[in-house]
Task: inverse folding
């Protein structure tokens, strides 16, 4: 799947430099390119704020910050930094500080520090807010939560929001996982949507705005709608994965280095919340792509997983030494997973099959081993039902109906907001 239809010419053989013609030629235009071709329609004569990070680029890797800053039609006056910062120089979970952008001199307001929602003071002098960040298609990824809080803050002040649309790297057809239940909304589960929601960020913005799903409010605060503009892509289709788009993948956060990693993220990230249980490739070159530990017999684990005949998934044994983290320098053993039939596979259940196999082989229950992280596991799942039911016997069969139970109704609802 990697670099499909793209190898064109080998240059500088000693360095193995490869040009990908798909990335150069391309067939999908992201919202920033469509906006530029329109002459920045909607931004003329307005003071513009921008929420973005390094993934906000055109196909030639020009930053949306620089594009808007240098455009004579645009008066870009402030930047707003989500997790990892405007320039991506803050590591996972690190506090983002407000300050000034070295390249442009513009003020930068942190949305991942003392506040995650823009204050009314931060929005002073802004006529319209622009959002341009590459999404990964999973509910727990914090950038879509930032979008919702920005939309709410702008609604309170009467400031329109413009979303520059980008591809969903999981495609537009996969919907998996339960809706977030009351009491479990958080920055990693802000909206009442499934874990994998099958919408572009522009479609999602429309949906949460119109359906009252934006849970940025506190207590008895009303649900607010902002004036919302979507700049759609050109050429994107719902069955496209990211490598079908011809666009360069710019890691939106440090542990999502490749487009394929965005597919792996919902497949193992929930398991990764069980600290001290299984390494999922974090701290190695395959983040979210493996399940391994020192005490695992890789051949036995693969054989047990093969025996399940999980639709669309294949397994291989793997042995590696993480270069950072809890298992730094230790040889660990386990499996790497591949999707042989993406349409048939249920990405988010992959990790639960692994947990089932590990329990059958070794009697290790992650729910009992990871007591300090269970609250976060519930937040990411959007419910405590999964933990409680799965934790009893560690059988996928005990949660599969619940896990898939909201998908069809959500698809019916979300179709109203399809742009593509």
Result:
């Amino acid at each position: 799947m990697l670099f499909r239809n793209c190898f064109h010419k080998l240059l500088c053989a000693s360095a193995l430099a490869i040009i990908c013609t798909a990335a150069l030629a391309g067939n999908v235009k992201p919202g920033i390119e469509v906006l530029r071709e329109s002459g920045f329609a909607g931004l003329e004569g307005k003071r513009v704020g921008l929420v973005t990070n390094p993934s906000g680029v055109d196909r030639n890797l020009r930053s949306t910050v620089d594009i808007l800053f240098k455009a004579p039609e645009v008066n870009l006056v402030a930047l707003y930094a989500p997790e990892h910062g405007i320039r991506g120089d803050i590591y996972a979970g690190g506090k983002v500080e407000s300050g000034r952008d070295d390249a442009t001199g513009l003020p930068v307001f942190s949305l991942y520090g003392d506040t995650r929602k823009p204050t009314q003071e931060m929005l002073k002098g802004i006529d319209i807010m622009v959002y341009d960040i590459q999404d990964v298609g999973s509910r727990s990824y914090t950038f879509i939560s930032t979008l919702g809080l920005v939309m709410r803050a702008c609604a309170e002040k009467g400031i329109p929001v413009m979303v520059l649309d980008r591809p969903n790297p999981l495609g537009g057809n996969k919907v998996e996982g339960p809706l977030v239940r009351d009491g479990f909304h958080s920055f990693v589960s802000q909206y009442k949507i499934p874990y994998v929601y099958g919408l572009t960020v522009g479609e999602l913005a429309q949906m949460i705005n119109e359906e009252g799903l934006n849970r940025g409010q506190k207590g008895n605060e009303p649900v607010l709608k902002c004036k919302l503009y979507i700049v759609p892509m050109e050429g994107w289709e719902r069955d496209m994965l990211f490598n079908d788009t011809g666009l360069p993948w710019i890691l939106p956060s440090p542990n999502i280095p490749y487009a394929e990693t965005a597919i792996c993220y919902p497949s193992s990230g929930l398991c990764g919340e069980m600290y001290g249980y299984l390494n999922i490739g974090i701290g190695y070159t395959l983040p979210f792509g493996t399940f391994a530990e020192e005490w695992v017999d890789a051949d036995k684990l693969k054989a047990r997983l093969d025996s399940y005949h999980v639709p669309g998934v294949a397994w291989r044994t793997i042995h590696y030494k993480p270069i950072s983290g809890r298992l730094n320098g230790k040889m660990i053993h386990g499996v790497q997973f591949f999707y042989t039939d993406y349409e048939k596979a249920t990405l988010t259940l992959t990790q639960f099959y692994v947990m089932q196999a590990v329990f059958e082989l070794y009697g290790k229950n992650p729910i009992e081993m990871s007591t300090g992280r269970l609250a976060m596991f519930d937040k990411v799942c959007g419910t405590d039902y999964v933990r409680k039911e799965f934790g009893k016997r560690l059988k996928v069969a005990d949660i599969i109906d619940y896990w898939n139970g909201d998908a069809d109704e959500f698809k019916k609802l979300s179709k109203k907001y399809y742009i593509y």
Observations:
- Residues 312 and 341 are 4 Å apart (CA to CA).
- The chain is about 30% helix and 15% strand.
- The chain has a mean pLDDT of 90.
